[in-house]
Amino acid sequence: MDTEWNWAGNYAYGATAIHRPTSVAATQELVARLTQVRALGSRHSFNDVADSPGELISLQQLPREITFSQQGSTVTVDGGITYGELATALCQQGYALANLASLPHISVAGACQTGTHGSGIANQSLAAAVSAMTMITSSGALVTVAGEDADFAGRVVGLGAAGLITSLTLAVEPAFEVATTVYTGLRWETMLDQLEALLAVAYSVSIFVEWSDPDRSQVFVKSRTDTETTQPEQLFGALPADRPLHPVRGVEAIGCTEQLGRPGLWCDRLPHFRLDFVPSTGQELQSEYLVSREDGPAALHALRGIEAELAELAQTMEIRSVAADGLWLSPAYQRDCVGLHFTWIKDQARVLALLPNLERLLQPFDARPHWGKLFVTPAKRLAELFPRMGDFVELVRTCDPYRKFANAYLRRVTGYDS
After folding, report:
1. Widest pairwise Cα distance in the chain
2. How far apart are the C-alpha atoms of 310 and 317, rounded to whole Å?
3. Lower Cβ count inside 10 Å, N or C end of the chain?
4. Is 312 exposed, middle or buried (0-12, 13-18, 19+ CB in 10 A)?
């Protein structure tokens, strides 16, 4: 096949073919027949998590499935749907998800499998909304797993290792409105002193730091109009912007969702970027590390040790909060977290050269990497950071005894097959 690339253009897939079945039955036949196969989502991962030494299956052409439970508390969707497609359908029916990631272009299944999240001290990872999944196993059989199953918490953030997800059931709630106000000029020391208060000031908060001038940070404050009061006139010394702003200073905000405190539906405000535009800058690499919320200020202070390098390579650093969950491989497993998200310039060699020093500075804080982004943490250390890693490996060996879904990424990060 012609060379296929991920969204960022920094990774070329090595698989020999990509299949695009139009039915679950056809997908089952493919999985049963192929000896090595993986699911390919929206290609927004910055590493080889979705690649296969054999062939890939994209589920984007499966029929769209959006089915509400009788009580209206859950929705079941197909394995190929994106959050943008789902959010549009939910809004039309008067429903909402509790949270969204920074951009709506990503697939629901892929985001959940890699532990993707939004922000908010009371908001868990996107995968925490999943109450059931239907998967194609290595034999081609269709199996449904749900929250009451003993190993369910090991499958939801599962790195694609246990099978291809054909449907997910997610918790929903009545639709709500959100207003976004961006504050500028937050000083570094103020941020460190008031980090928890800043992250708790609204339903969803993101702080963007430009390392060449850390005293000019931006704070994206997203308030629910049904439960929160009017946003303040100043925020720990930072003032409201008088025009829409992009998270990366100097980039036009045309692709950003609406700001200036104007209320709108959750699906049009919780992401930073609009569905009809290229997300973020379009020319970037990403890494993210999650530390416990109480360690956030100290971890940020430690990064000053490579401030010059960060000023050269990081377009911006986003600071978000994620509530604890019980999913085995979730970076927020059993601890409330602060996520330190780096949007790098598109220079992979230099970024990869910096990551060992960055991870060394964050090591005292047990920083867990985001599975879909660039990191160099070895399997031995990851097993210490994720206490259920051994259980996950045993689960994968049971679910995939012939290593049909194995790839270089799984061996590298889990010790699987070692």
Report:
1. 62
2. 9
3. C
4. middle
The CA distance from 234 to 238, in Å, is 6
User: Coil, strand, or helix at residue 359?
Assistant: helix
Q: Which amino acid is at 186?
A: L
Q: Which helix (H) or strand (E) holds 184?
A: strand 177-186
> What residues contact residue 80 under an 8 Å CB cut-off, 6+ apart?
58, 59, 60, 61, 62, 64, 107, 109
- Tell which residue, 118, 64, 111, 124, has the closest CA to residue 257: 118
Identify which of 18, 23, 20 has the alpha carbon closest to the alpha carbon of residue 1. 18
- As given in the structure block, the two tokens for residue 360 are 């060394």
Long-range contacts of 277-280 (CB under 8 A, 24+ apart): 279/102, 279/103, 279/105, 279/255, 280/102, 280/103, 280/247, 280/248, 280/343
Cα–Cα distance, 236 to 185 (Å, whole number): 10
pTM above 0.85, yes or no: yes
Mean pLDDT by 10 residues, the chain (418 residues): 89 96 97 97 96 97 94 94 96 96 94 97 98 97 94 97 97 97 97 97 97 95 89 92 94 93 96 79 88 98 97 98 98 98 97 98 98 98 98 95 95 83
